[in-house]
Amino acid sequence: MKPDKGQEQAARNTRTVSAERRDEPSRAVVLVPIQRTGVSDNPLRSSESKLAEAVGLAGAIDIEIVHSAICWLNNITPATLFGSGKVEELAGIVQSMEAELVIVDHALTPVQQRNLEKAWKAKVIDRTGLILEIFGQRASTREGVLQVQLAHLNYQKGRLVRSWTHLERQRGSTGFIGGPGETQIEADRRILQDKIVKLEKELEQVRRTRTLHRSKRKKVPHPVVALVGYTNAGKSTLFNTLTGATVRAKDMLFATLDPTLRRLTLPHGRMVILSDTVGFISDLPTHLVAAFRATLEEVLEADLILHVRDMSDPDNAAQAADVTRILHELGVRDEGEGSTKIIEVWNKIDLLPYETVESMEARREETTAVPVSATTGQGVEFLLETIELTLSGRLINRDITIGVNDMSQLNWLYEHAKVHSREDREDGSVALNLDITEHDMSDLQRRLAH
Ligand SMILES: Nc1nc2c(ncn2[C@@H]2O[C@H](COP(=O)(O)OP(=O)(O)OP(=O)(O)O)[C@@H](O)[C@H]2O)c(=O)[nH]1
């Protein structure tokens, strides 16, 4: 059956909160449901920091938060997540606050979402919906935009359950979920599926172009160093400090959605490509991680990963555990053969008490962590040395003789090693004493063997 105009219009109304350009930002309530009894999905994280994070995330989109609260749950009620008494109590709050949007920092089934919307007479979005909204606002490259659109459509497809019927009519189709009528669900789903297929094709094309760029880059085989970390850990700031770049570093969650690449010269002259990537967040749904796989290919292909942590955040241990888990999900192996080297960068030490920083620095030998402040630059030099050491091995002192037939290697040697003394011998050979990294030494041996 061919969808009629009304149905097409309904599916076109798959707009985002961000796309609703109104004069006033939406008034929103932020709720963080936490189960009182059962083991929470992340026992490391305190309820206050969960609330702070949810408010921070919600603040990343253009809304006015009029109320926020932790909601302790004794049990999960399948139809509404919250128990009926709580749903009613919250309905009172939503109405008295005149909120149009309720952000529930938890996964909601489509049925729960629909029932809560009915009960509260407001739009309800869950954590995934919120993250998609933020991603939608941040994506800047074609690939980033397409990825977010695709993730959004896939999310909506699972949610086409007569969700907006009366709200849509009340407010004139401003919801970002289409399909106001139950009879239209099938047609809407088909329209969404068509859009998904189209987007996937387009994305494929964009990716092919990028792969081409990457293989060109591979011809000059500089190692790739990827910055990863929890959102707001300070990756972009560090990226700027390391490369002297002036890319934006705002107090803005997920400011970097698309990978940014820049060349960086290490203290002993080795060139690397530094890549800044999307920030991670806890409870990032697997299908969202999958949507960003392509963007994160830089991370997968990196020779070295810098895991940036905001050590001033009381929650940083839980955040680090999340980042490590997501890296594993993406396929990064940090142990065994073929594993990727990872250095932890303990950032924002300028915000920590002197003694804490001192004890961190004292432990530097036993951990692979480097304490730094991306804003003041403290520790950054040591970080660069650690990157070089990890990629190139130690600096060693060697006496080397270059035979007459290998004179063409002399230039290379001067570029890659620090020459302390040179003796030009009668037979035409050159004896050198130099400092060279282990990596360059094995490179030299390969060159001389040819
Ligand atoms: N005091 C202090 N603030 C820092 C430091 N590094 C970053 N910041 C601040 O932390 C905030 C987040 O920094 P970003 O560099 O945007 O963080 P990010 O990890 O790239 O964030 P996402 O794009 O969300 O992944 C900004 O306000 C920075 O100024 C630091 O070493 N010290």
From TrEMBL:
Task: Name the predominant localization.
Answer: cytoplasm
Q: Which GO terms describe its cellular component?
A: cytoplasm
Q: Where in the cell is it found?
A: Cytoplasm
Where, if anywhere, are coiled coils annotated? 182-216
Q: Record's SUPFAM superfamilies?
A: P-loop containing nucleoside triphosphate hydrolases
Residues reported to bind GTP: 229-236, 254-258, 276-279, 347-350, 373-375
Cofactor(s) needed: Mg(2+)
Q: Where are the transmembrane segments?
A: none
Record's Gene3D superfamilies? 6.10.250.2860, GTPase HflX, N-terminal domain, P-loop containing nucleotide triphosphate hydrolases
Which top-rank group of organisms is this from?
Answer: Bacteria
Question: Quick one: where's region Disordered?
Answer: 1-24
What would be an example GO MF term here? Answer: GTP binding
Residues bound to Mg(2+): S236, T256
Does the keyword Cytoplasm feature in the UniProt annotation? yes
Keywords tagged on the record? Coiled coil, Cytoplasm, GTP-binding, Magnesium, Metal-binding, Nucleotide-binding
Task: State whether keyword Nucleotide-binding applies.
Answer: yes
Query: Any idea where the Hflx-type G domain is?
Result: 223-395
Q: Which InterPro entries match?
A: G_HFLX_dom, GTP-bd, GTP-bd_M, GTPase_HflX, GTPase_HflX_N, GTPase_HflX_N_sf, HflX_C, P-loop_NTPase
Q: Name one Pfam family in it.
A: MMR_HSR1
- What does the function comment of this entry state? GTPase that associates with the 50S ribosomal subunit and may have a role during protein synthesis or ribosome biogenesis.
User: What PANTHER family does its record include?
Assistant: GTP-BINDING PROTEIN 6-RELATED (PTHR10229:SF0), GTP-BINDING PROTEIN HFLX (PTHR10229)
Q: Supply the NCBIfam families for this chain.
A: GTP_HflX (TIGR03156)
Subunit relationships: Monomer. Associates with the 50S ribosomal subunit.
Assigned protein family: Belongs to the TRAFAC class OBG-HflX-like GTPase superfamily. HflX GTPase family.
Q: Give the protein's recorded name.
A: GTPase HflX
Name the source organism: Flavimaribacter sediminis
Q: What gene does the UniProt entry assign to this protein?
A: hflX
